[in-house]
Design brief:
CATH architecture of one domain: 2-Layer Sandwich
Radius of gyration: 28 Å
Strand content: 15-25%
Number of helices: 21
Shape: globular
Helix content: 40-55%
Distance between the termini: 73 Å
Strand order of the largest sheet: 5-4-3-6-7-8-15
CATH topology of one domain: Dihydrodipicolinate Reductase, domain 2
CATH class of one domain: Alpha Beta
Structural class: alpha/beta
Length: 536
């Protein structure tokens, strides 16, 4: 009991109840663990001491020790609720937070501590944090014209593992004259990564007012702060409200579905481009399939029937990527992600036959087209949904699948067996709790050497209705989840920041894919950055 009490902060404010008839007024009461009367010495190192003016009939009064202990029991129960609320879905976090507030009304004033505030934040409550500052309280006119804003680009989540790399990339390769800044929730961490000495904006991902002030100051927000279903929803809300263009690197397709339902119509009306999946997931897939299908239409004067993508990837994996994956498992959203037409304007409009043809591949087989053994590509369940949304928005339709290719059947079989074992382990909450500590944590990632020596190569094979085949290769040097992702995101942000109107082939607004939001202009910028597509 004594150790528990020592976590409290006796200097916090006391909420006093209204004076009641018959009250003896205020007096100074000293309460110590094991001595409710207040007599004897008060040694803070051995117990809890409260030497503060309190009403005679206050529940912490020495004359009513039963109220004090009852309040402590309620408080202890509330801490347990908060602890378990961190494991619950966002919906139930709010319920747990509500019950927690009711349970702790009696002791909040006397025992509010930093530990308590952290646990309240996990439960979804909005509380002040000593290391988080709000942006300057400046009034901005609603829907300020993009040309009149302070910045062209703000990098949000800049202190994270991938975010730090976006800061360095912008420092080296940002177009001349681009006005950019970095943002996040922790000022001290942002200062340590601010190698370009640009402006720093501080806004917590759950603070609506701070995010609105941030979005009102910039033409474009590019964010790497995930899991995006936890830390991206309010940021997108602010961007749509302020008509600020947005891009990210999410692969959380259920969350993208919610954005489409909530914001696509309004963003289309306002001409605001909300572009998700601007990293390795899913720019190579989206652009490679689009360029192949367009070539079939324009050069061969035929309809595209199907496109298949075959990936070879070298590099590591980030803790943030794993955190997003585990969050989808914990929330049950992984079931929704299996819908092959999840991101289509109307996912229910497809027949059972269409769904069967577009179901995710399974197993290992030899593919004569690429003369390699192939397995399902790990990111195919993300990329294929994005590609199909692009098709729907552009009014085209062809079958699209993705594979990982290997030189031998034994390597392909080992990869497939390993994938199945991992899938079996993470299927249960118990398995996830065992394996999570063994994997990279959020903020961790591959070494510089691994990231620099990584690579990706994707071969696209398109089939025309006329029977002809078209081959193209998308490739780049660097770890796919870091070097390639950073290049893709930053160049996407540059396109949004530098263009006053939608580029050729792009939609003017909505919740869009990379192709439908950025068009041909990104292809040229990626080639300059070393990510090139060519027909073979």
């Amino acid at each position: 009991m004594e150790r528990f009490l020592e976590l409290a902060d006796p200097s916090g404010p006391v909420t006093r109840p209204p004076d009641r008839a018959g009250s003896a007024g205020n007096r100074t009461t000293i309460i110590k663990a094991g001595n409710a009367s207040g007599k004897g010495s008060t040694r803070r190192d051995s117990g809890f001491a409260l030497a503060r003016p309190v009403p005679e009939d206050h529940f912490l009064s020495a004359a009513r020790p039963w109220g004090y202990h009852a309040a402590l029991r309620r408080y202890a129960c509330s801490l347990v609720r908060r602890r378990f609320a961190a494991w619950l879905s966002p919906k139930w976090r709010a319920v747990a937070a509500c019950h927690t507030d009711v349970a702790t009304d009696g002791v909040r004033g006397a025992t509010r501590s930093r530990l308590t505030r952290r646990r309240r934040a996990r439960a979804g409550a909005r509380t002040a944090r000593p290391d988080v500052e709000a942006p300057p309280d400046v009034e901005y006119p609603e829907h300020m014209a993009l040309a009149d804003r302070n910045y062209d680009l703000v990098l949000y989540g800049a202190s994270g593992f991938t975010g730090k790399q976006t800061v360095e990339y912008c420092r080296q390769f940002a177009p001349s004259g681009l006005r950019w800044a970095i943002a996040g929730r922790n000022r001290s961490k942002l200062d340590t990564v601010n190698s370009a000495s640009v402006d720093v904006l501080v806004a917590d991902a759950q603070d609506d007012d701070a995010l609105n002030r941030l979005a009102a100051q910039t033409r474009v927000v590019a964010t790497t702060a995930g899991p995006f279903s936890l830390y991206g929803t309010k940021l997108v809300d602010a961007c749509v409200h302020n008509r600020t263009h947005y891009c990210d690197i999410t692969g959380e397709t259920p969350w993208i579905r919610r954005l489409i339902d909530c914001h696509h119509a309004q963003a289309s009306i306002d001409g605001t481009r909300i572009i998700t999946s601007c990293g390795f997931d899913s720019i190579p897939s989206d652009y490679g399939s689009w360029l192949v299908s367009r070539h079939i239409r324009d050069a061969l004067q035929s309809d595209c029937v199907s496109v298949s993508a075959y990936f070879r990837v070298g590099g590591g994996i980030n803790g943030g990527t794993l955190a997003s994956f585990f969050h989808m498992l914990d929330s049950g959203e992984i079931v929704m992600a299996r819908d092959p037409f999840l991101l289509d304007p109307d996912p229910t409009a497809h027949t059972a036959e269409e769904r069967a043809r577009n179901a995710d591949p399974a197993g290992v087989h030899y593919d004569a087209e690429v003369q390699s053994w192939v397995t399902p590509f790990l990111m195919g369940m993300i990329n294929t949904r994005v590609v199909r949304r692009t098709q729907a928005l552009l009014g085209t339709r062809f079958e699209y699948q993705e594979y990982a290719k290997f030189n031998s059947s034994s390597v392909a079989q080992m990869f497939m067996i390993g994938s199945k074992i991992f899938e079996f382990i993470v299927r249960s909450g118990f398995g996830r709790r065992i394996i999570k500590p063994l994997l990279p944590q959020p903020g961790d990632g591959p070494s510089e050497k691994t990231m620099n020596e990584g690579f990706f190569e994707c071969e696209f094979i398109g089939s025309a209705k006329s029977g002809e085949r078209i081959r193209g290769i998308f490739k780049g040097q660097g770890d796919a989840g870091n070097r390639i992702t950073v290049k893709c995101l930053c160049e996407s942000a540059f396109v949004l920041a530098l263009s006053s109107t939608a580029p050729s082939g792009a939609k003017p607004g909505g919740v869009l894919t990379p192709v439908t939001g950025l068009g041909d202009e990104l292809t040229a910028r990626l080639a300059t950055a070393g990510i090139k597509f060519e027909f073979v």
